[in-house]
Amino acid sequence: MLTAEQIAEFDENGFLKGGVVLSDEEVERLREELDMVMEGKSVKKPVLNRNMLDNSHYGMTITKKETVVQIVNIWMASDAYFEHAKNRTICEEVAQLCRTDTLRIWHDQIQYKPPVTGGPTHWHQDHPLWPVIQPADLVSAWVALDDATIENGCMWMVPGSHKWGNHQRYLTATEDFMPVHKQPQLLPPGAKVEAVPFEIKKGQVGYHHSLTWHGSPNNRSERKRRAIAVHYMPGHTYYAPTGNHPMEPHIHVKPGEIMSGESFPVVYEK
Ligand SMILES: O=C(O)CCC(=O)C(=O)O
To answer: Which residues belong to the signal peptide in this entry (predicted)?
Structure first.
């Protein structure tokens, strides 16, 4: 459970480091399952398994060698990942941060940056990239399967940016991957675009709000950078289609209805 101080820190910054939630054995099991799914050897398949950088990413030009393996909904391919999505500590803490008594999986996501050739994940906000659900108050739990450090491409966050609204179309980066707003006059008074590294230890969880600006640079180190993020919906998230998303074929409720169904299982109820 999170303390009142931790919840206040999350509300202020839009992100928070939690504790170590996985043992070394649990991390090892998830790493093995990841290899199996990534290599296409699992019986059941995830929704996506691709190099996220195969095409240009958010308009950036990427050389072919750079790779970020993105697997969406590995929980559908691996029982170990479904169990992970139900992790009691994580779910209790996300429910506290969302002020809800029910959590469903929106989707999960592996981002694996291999040694040396691991590419960037450009600056973004999650909710604008999910133009099928409302409101914009989801919380994600990002668990490192390797120590995520500045050297191997940990995420960076902009404190307070979750309070500034949707600026997705204006986000870009300097040569050294610091965030830049293309039209800063549109930011609220006092908004400071200053990123901080979000280093997370193996087995530790980091939480972020679905409007927090975040991104992660290349992995130029000799170490892997593997992680599993679960994007959780509070009980009140509803279907509001205004754009496309890979999960859309799995949605079988009507616009305005609560996002429920077998592809969006309840993983926590108080
Ligand atoms: O793993 C990363 O570097 C980025 C993940 C991300 O954008 C997310 O979990 O919302």
So the answer is: none
